[in-house]
Amino acid sequence: MIPAVFFGVLGLTIGSFLNVVIRRLPIGESLVWPGSHCPECGRKLGVLELVPVLGYIGLRGKCAGCGVRISPRYPVVEAATGAGFYWAAVNAAGPLDFVNSILLLSGLTAIFFIDLDHGIIPDVISLPLTAAGLALGAVMGAFPDRAIAAAGGFAVFWSIRFIGTLLAKEEAMGFGDVKLAAMIGAFLGIRMAATGLFLGFLIGGIMAVWLMAAKRRGAKDPIPFGPMMAAGGAIALIKGLAVLDLYAMCVARIWSL
Known about the structure:
The chain is mostly helical. It has helices spanning about 5-25, 55-60, 75-90, 95-120, 125-140, 145-170, 175-215, 225-255. About 70% of the residues lie in helices and about 0% in strands. α3 (about 75-90) packs antiparallel against α4, α4 packs antiparallel against α5 (about 125-140) and α5 (about 125-140) packs antiparallel against α6. The chain is globular.
């Protein structure tokens, strides 16, 4: 009964907090102290400067104190989270489904950028969210499906990591990716988790080819896979059924040739 726009605004605020998590968590800083400040000059941000998206626009993308450029990632994360919350409010089948969607989207957003910047997926994000996804599944009557998806995702990615490491004689995949696969399964269940992880591999393959073609990465240079998995999981949540329909249509056309 609450207008979806309210949840969109709430998402903007959560996005602002996610920016703090993305920046501070990997380097071991407190998420609450000190308050929001310019990382360059240390100036504490004013109330109006903290308004999601609008604060960035008002500052014209620069710190009012030292003039250093503020990364456009900040408003992007805020806007994306707000849009995700709004989408969840419009499309959720009920309160529990809404909570399921916003928890997954928030976790995937934080993981996307942390892994992109630091090459790690913090356990403090993936493990509690895996437990939350399974708990929500139990309440929603989907626990067996989600438990199998989480265990299956973990087992498949652990196997890929193990075999890849043996063949390459160096770590082929971070263990954080294995735990992320379990987290995605805990929220999406077997069918949508499989769709999301497949999309992650597809996106990862496309990005790897593009990076090597553009000579931004060599064949042996590590490429974070967590962002690809996070993107795949988000797409599966939002458009998973459409992706499956498209896949089925393509297969049917191929078989009809």
